[in-house]
Amino acid sequence: MFRTQSVENIQFLPFLTTDINNLSWLSYGCLKQDWTLITVNTIGAALQSLYILVYFYFSPEKRRVLLQSTALLGVLILGYCYFNLLIPDVAVRLARLGLFCSVFTISMYLSPLADLAKIVRTRSTRCLSFPLTVATFLASASWTLYGFQLSDLYIMVPNIPGIVTSILRFWLFWQFPLDHDKLYKPLQA
User: Fold this and answer.
1) Which 3 state secondary structure label does DSSP give 178?
2) CA atoms within 13 A on the CB side of 19
3) How far is it, in rounded angstroms, from Cα 80 to Cα 76?
4) What is the rounded distance in angstroms from the CA atom of residue 165 to the CA atom of residue 142?
5) CA atoms of 131 and 136, how far apart (whole Å)
6) CB–CB of 163/141 below 8 Å?
7) Do residues 158 and 146 lie in contact, with contact meaning Cβ atoms separated by under 8 Å?
8) I need a labelling partner for 127 at 20 to 30 A (CA). Which of 12, 52, 135, 152 fits?
9) CATH number among 1.10.3470, 1.10.1660, 1.10.740, 1.20.1280, domain 1-86
């Protein structure tokens, strides 16, 4: 965004959903008093919030970005009220918050598969990011192992789809490799 001074071809929704995901897991970590979850998700939420601010700065559609960010804030306030005011029992709150975080994480990991039909039809992985696929694989594998170590199904189970979808995307990169010659137009001398 800084290099191009634009948000062209960059979707805003992933920044918002990742911020909600980080803030939800941060709440789970605080409730569970798990400093690994607290540290990682505090950093993640801060970075995602910074990305949102940068996106807002460069976006020509500031009203839409502001409305979506306000909706995010509304969802967070409703979530806070539900989990902290309507569920007084801490064990029940931890279970429901863990379930919410798990469902949200699974949906985030499955979202790149929305482009699956387009990738197979065009036989091109141009819309996929290989570095992001590697990062997703490593992060989801790490969180799965961490959840296994803690015997915490809410951490372990939702990260397994991240491993599976990453392996599927690796297979797509292998099956439909990028043709770097087609990505760039030749320079006329």
Assistant:
1) coil
2) 21
3) 6
4) 15
5) 9
6) yes
7) no
8) 52
9) 1.20.1280
Residues in the chain: 189
Any idea which residue has 């915490």 for tokens?
152
Going from the C-alpha of 175 to that of each of 5, 170, 179, 184, the distances in angstroms are 34, 9, 12, 21
> Among 3.40.1010.20, 2.60.40.10, 1.20.1280.290, 3.40.50.720, what is the CATH number of 108-178?
1.20.1280.290
Query: Taking the domains of the chain in order of start, what are their residue ranges?
Result: 1-86, 108-178
Taking alpha carbons only, the member of 15, 1, 2, 80 closest to residue 44 is 15
- 20 within 8 A of 52, measured Cβ to Cβ: no
Q: What is the pLDDT of residues 17-40, one digit of tens each?
A: 888 899 999 999 999 999 999 999
